[in-house]
Every structure is written in C-alpha cells, then in structure tokens.
Amino acid sequence: MKLILNNIGKKFPPDWIFKKIDFQFNEGQKYALIGPNGSGKSTLLKILSGHLTPSQGKLLPLLNDTLIPLDQLYKYISFAAPYMDLIEEFTLDETIRFHAQFKPLRNNMSVSDLMDLLKLQKSINKPLKFFSSGMKQRVKLGLALYSDVPLVLLDEPTTNLDVDGADWYLEGISSLPKNTLLIVASNTPSDYESFDHKLFIKDYKKKPKA
Length: 210
Prior knowledge:
Rossmann fold, 5-stranded parallel β-sheet
C-alpha cells in the first residue's frame, strides 16, 4: 500500500489548516505526523483515510501500483482514535464479531485469540458502556492493529492508556506484518520514537499569498 499526497491542502474558512503537502507514504514503513495541538494532525489523518476531502490537491492511494478509488479506500484501512465511538450496548464479544464481519482479523485470528491479545478476557460479556476509557481505547487499538488490512491509521494512540497499556500498544505495532503501512498522529514522543519517518505539520502552515 502506498499513499501519494499531491499538493494537499485543507481550509476551514477563512484559514488554511495546512497547504501544499507533497509527500509519499510507502508500504512497510512507519510514519509519525507531528505538530502542536490544533496544527492539523487529525485533519490530515482523516484526509488520508478518505473521511475528509482536501480543499486542494489530490490523494492517490495505490495498492500494487493500482489506483484505489477513494470511495473504496475504507476496505483497505483500519483507523483508531480516542474520539471514535464504539457501540456501547455491545459486549466485547459482540464488538469483535461485528467488526470481523467487515474487516477480517489477520492470520485467521479467532475472537478468542484477539481477546487474549487485548488482555480483557474477564470482560468478554460486559457491555462496553461499563468499560473504562482506557479499556475502550485498548479495544479500538486492538481492532485496528489486528485487522487484515495494508494501512493502519492511529490518532493519539496512547490517550487514556496507563503505562502497561502504552507498552501493550508498542508491542502491537511491532507485531504488524512487514508490508503494513502505519501512520500515527501524536504529540507523545514514545508513541513513535522507533519510527524512521516524521512529517512536521508546522512545515505546511504558511499562509497563502492570495
């Protein structure tokens, strides 16, 4: 999976959030989107996922050098963010089974296998509305990290996680298949300190001349 950004910009009138981003995200690499709060990290991540349309430029997603139509991009990505809602009436077991109908788990993983990885076995039949914020975040990350997709997008992944949860997240990203493209937006250096590639959103904050 490859993502090519061609002169990407996003404007929420009257201001440009960022402008003129030319960048390429390559298969099998890990990238961090970095910038202060309000700089546009989450906005760019939503553009990369196809949830937002850029105000200028084009997003070109390629799989095996074949262009993926933007309205089909969702099939190839998993996305986790603290602001994403889960169906709180579902139990954990129901949540995983529901998710797996649309995004199969990788390596033919079973619901039980993922439950073991989440380390939430005791809560299998508990509705998510009774989960703590940290438990919900672990569920979101688990569904994203262990889905059988070539592109994983994570926004502030360790939000609401304790120290053990943060270590669990790092184990999860290290277990991704070698050809997975991982893009993480974060202000927490430990979330991405092992990554080779970083994109600083502030570099694209210049005001247009006209």
